[in-house]
Amino acid sequence: MEAGRLFAAQGYDRTSVAEVAKAVGTSPASVFYYFEDKASLFRAVFERDLPAAEALIARHVEAPDPVTAILDVLDALARDAADPSASGMLIELLRRAGDDPELLAVVGRTANVLREGLAALISRGITEGAIDPDLDATETAAWLQAIVDATYLNARPGHSPHIELHRTVLGYLNPPQGRQEEPNG
Amino acid sequence: MEAGRLFAAQGYDRTSVAEVAKAVGTSPASVFYYFEDKASLFRAVFERDLPAAEALIARHVEAPDPVTAILDVLDALARDAADPSASGMLIELLRRAGDDPELLAVVGRTANVLREGLAALISRGITEGAIDPDLDATETAAWLQAIVDATYLNARPGHSPHIELHRTVLGYLNPPQGRQEEPNG
DNA sequence: GTCTATACTCGGATAGAC
DNA sequence: GTCTATCCGAGTATAGAC
């Protein structure tokens, strides 16, 4: 999707359909033949995220160690955070989601899949004694998603967010004394 | 600043100068008499943030307990995070900063003041043994700022991020075993 | 200093030929 | 299905009266 790069680099409003058409080697009219309007062209960029999110969760939900699985999922979500244009895309997404209810629904579905998957892993971590039982699984999952967003905001070329991300997540999930070796009596 | 509310609610591009003029009870021409162009009108909203940031840091930099001071500063910065329009404003800011170098400079100065203030508190916390000495003060300060920004992006009306924020920061800063009572031999 | 009126540009979307 | 040509609205910024 070439349009995605342009939207990320320049923003939605400052990227004309003519520009996108040119980048793809066609005319504006042809773009409007395939997409109802400019908004739906933008949405298309995010529609591929849902199956990717489902696959990601499916790949980790049965992992032996839930905490490791959580870190792996978050790493995957933060993978693009080193790319500064990915940060631009996140911002455009947040911005457009307020104006385009259909876009909100699209990204909402993806976010729900991720949140529920993470929440399931958190619940299991609590059961196994590796995660503080005082935490609410769903609320915590939402917070971890926000932390991933923070890695995008902190994006600097060449700087990998993995270290901060891991330390942050482990520090947040761990039971008070950092103790995690006693499932139950 | 009435313009700020409109920019926050609708975004920069979707807010016309005519709209701002109407809200203030004047004409577009008068707005352009006081502001060079639309971009400088937007910048004006953020110019007041620098003195506020300086005052905030000055108020806490000498506090007896650096970790408490850090939490207080971050709480102040995250105070508006429950207000969805503040979230909109941050998004517009991030978005516009990429297009307007002068705006980038304006907010850069404010961010630097905050980062340096936080870094000073972190350094002191390390010296006093309350914060993990393996952390780099400046990098950590930048990361904490990113986490605060993330609380804005994740804003839900009525939900204050204080609890998550505190737990996250304490979990991140604490020395490995949660031990913090031995400054040095 | 503030207004009305408007010049000018740009971009989304469409018409209609091929 | 893809093109060229174009309509149309919107919005920044300015001219010039008062």
Structural overview:
The structure is a homodimer of 185-residue chains. In chain A, helix 8 packs across helix 9 and helix 9 packs antiparallel against helix 10. Chain A is mainly α and 185 residues long. Chain A is 70% helix and 0% strand. The longest helix of chain A has 27 residues, at 101-127. Chain A has helices at residues 2-10, 17-24, 28-34, 38-47, 49-60, 66-78, 84-97, 101-127, 137-153, 162-173. The interface between A and B is medium-sized, with 31 and 31 residues. The first copy, chain A, binds a DNA duplex (18 and 18 nucleotides) through residues 16-18, 26-30, 32-34, 37-38.
Low-confidence stretches of chain A: 179-185
Amount of helix of chain A: 55-70%
Q: Gap between N and C termini of chain A, in Å?
A: 54 Å
Mean pLDDT of chain A, nearest integer? Answer: 93
Major sheet attributes of chain A: none
SSE run of chain A? HHHHHHHHHH
Largest interface: A-B, 31 and 31 residues
Rg of chain A to the nearest angstrom?
19 Å
Content-based structural category of chain A: mainly alpha
Provide a quick synopsis of the model.
The structure is a homodimer of 185-residue chains. Chain A is mainly alpha-helical.
Observed structural traits:
185 residues; elongated; mainly alpha; disordered C terminus; 10 helices; homodimer; DNA-binding
